[in-house]
Amino acid sequence: MPLYKDQGVVLGSIKLAEADKIVTVLTQGSGKVRAVAKGLRRTTSRFGARLEPFTHVDLMLYRGRSLDTVTQAEIVHPFRTLREDYSLVAAGATMLEAADKVAEEHERNVPLFLLLVKGLRALETRPASPRASPPVRSAARRRSAASPTRRAEPCARRTGTATPSARIPTRFAGWRRWRP
């Protein structure tokens, strides 16, 4: 069972026993990895806050049968500004959750890793609206492309082109959904 070194972004963690945690990391070379960080929840832990979500880390891991073990962790980029604003945390958590759902265990996916790091860096620059960040926008675009029956068109009341089929209640003035 060899040691290996890899870079990754921490997606989340689960408590294990009294002082340990199972950390889920999307790594550049090994894909999604679930690893045990022993003693992480102790106050004298050598890992401390290095294995918190949103942290880009350089890891030394020991390959186990079902779970790997973290032996060393160094922060590459902490993404500290993401943790200061709730809307940025919400948008970043959406990215982490999407990456966690898409990535397969121990299957290398470099484009996904690079997209996640690029998206977190874009969020860190504090866009006017976290919904306007490129990864979130592209995810919304993919969702709308996957469902062509869900489209929106301007309301007849707003555009001034009233037709018998365009009569809608005033509470829906502005935009309405229609199905072709």
Secondary structure: elements and pairs:
Blueprint (H helix, E strand, L loop, with lengths): L2 E14 L3 E8 L3 E7 L18 E7 L5 E10 L8 H17 L7 H15 L9 H13 L4 E4 L1 H4 L15 E4 L2
Parallel strand pairs: 3-5
Antiparallel strand pairs: 1-2, 1-4, 2-3, 4-5, 6-7
Helix pairs in contact: 1-2
Question: Could you please describe the fold and organization of this structure?
Answer:
This protein is an alpha+beta fold and 180 residues long. The chain has two domains: 3-79, Beta Barrel (OB fold (Dihydrolipoamide Acetyltransferase, E2P)), CATH 2.40.50.140; 81-143, no CATH class. The protein has four helices and seven strands; from the N terminus they run βββββαααβαβ. A hairpin with a 5-residue loop joins strand 4 and strand 5 (68-77). The chain is globular.
Which terms summarize this structure?
180 residues; alpha+beta; 2 domains; 4 helices; globular
Measured as a percent range, the helix fraction is 25-40%
User: How would you name the CATH homologous superfamily of the largest domain?
Assistant: Nucleic acid-binding proteins
Give the structural class.
Answer: alpha+beta
- In this structure, how is the largest beta sheet organized? 5 strands, mixed, barrel
In the predicted model, the low-confidence regions spanning at least 5 consecutive residues are 147-152
What number of domains?
Answer: 2
Widest β-sheet, arrangement of strands: 1-2-3-5-4
Percent strand equals 25-35%
What is the CATH topology descriptor of the largest domain?
OB fold (Dihydrolipoamide Acetyltransferase, E2P)
**Helix-strand string:** EEEEEHHHEHE
Cα gyration radius (Å): 22 Å
Coarse morphology: globular
**Number of strand elements:** 7
